[in-house]
Write a structure and sequence with these properties.
Length: about 280
């Protein structure tokens, strides 16, 4: 038996929720002193409204080691944890601490923590890859090796409608944000090999920026027929569907699916943001 624990930045599809092998551990969001758990109670519309109306940047806190350990208390022999990129959150370190404590009293269990070097649906795809390997009858060690190899080759891309969260948090100067808004410039961002964020391109308007993003995707993607592509969106299902159709026209992927963003992804992507991972 196996269990896959994913921090709540990684969205679970409906099939994953019903599968029985997957669990989410929530991060905690904060806006103007109010704490919001990134679990099934998360209200995206209310959160987007609160962030837009506040002069302050929203914050997030990673799950505690205890939160991870509660999910690790199960009948599964093989336990896999997938976290946000260690470059972006303390979730990975918290999960590693939980693993070390848990193993002291559970020596017969196999536990491994994957640093996704990604976020959102990047974590989702990693979880699905773990399940694929387990269902294929691989040993624990083989699963770890195969999935780490998969993470090495994974690429994350995103385009944001607004840079307000980055401006409020001090990660982007007010002047740069104002210029970008005035000129309707949308940066195309992507993950680095270590799981940090870099700018790959920029477009005048969302349509142009998404076209630039799809070009970036195809420049680094080979053997598309063997790969699953995932898209997550923040309150823009039509945009996500348009992006899916665009990718289907460019290559024959093994599968493409769309999910709604959960709280942590919503906090950074903001209203209208889209993330693509392959």
């Amino acid at each position: 038996m196996y269990k896959i624990i994913i921090d709540s930045c990684g969205e679970l599809t409906e099939d994953m929720k019903n599968d029985g092998h997957f669990a989410n551990v929530p991060l905690i969001l904060e806006i103007d002193g109010k704490q919001i758990y990134d679990d099934e109670t998360f209200d995206q519309a209310s959160f987007i409204k609160a962030v837009a109306e506040s002069p302050n940047a929203p914050k997030s806190a990673c799950p505690s080691p205890d939160a991870y350990m509660k999910e690790m208390e199960c009948d599964a022999d093989n336990i896999y944890i997938v976290t946000l990129s260690a470059e972006l959150s303390g979730s990975y370190n918290s999960a590693c601490l939980a693993k070390n404590i848990f193993e002291e009293d559970n020596e017969s269990k196999n536990v491994y923590v994957f640093n996704s070097r990604s976020a959102s649906i990047g974590e989702t795809l990693i979880g699905l890859k773990i399940a694929e390997c387990e269902n294929a009858g691989m040993s624990f060690e083989q699963v770890v090796e195969a999935v780490e190899s998969y993470i090495e080759k994974q690429h994350t891309f995103f385009v944001l409608e607004t840079l307000e969260t980055f401006r409020k948090s001090g990660r982007l100067s007010g002047l740069k944000a104002a210029i970008a808004e005035t000129l309707n410039i949308k940066p195309v961002m992507g993950s680095t090999d270590t799981g940090y964020i870099q700018q790959l391109a920029k477009g005048r308007g969302m349509t142009h920026a998404i076209d630039k993003m799809t070009k970036c995707v195809m420049e680094v993607t080979t053997n598309c027929e063997e790969k699953v592509l995932a898209i997550s969106h923040c309150n823009c299902p039509e945009r996500a569907l348009s992006l899916k159709k665009k990718m289907e026209s460019l290559a024959n992927f093994k599968d493409i699916f769309i999910v709604d963003m959960r709280g942590v992804s919503t906090m950074y992507a903001n209203d209208g943001g889209v993330i693509l991972v392959v």
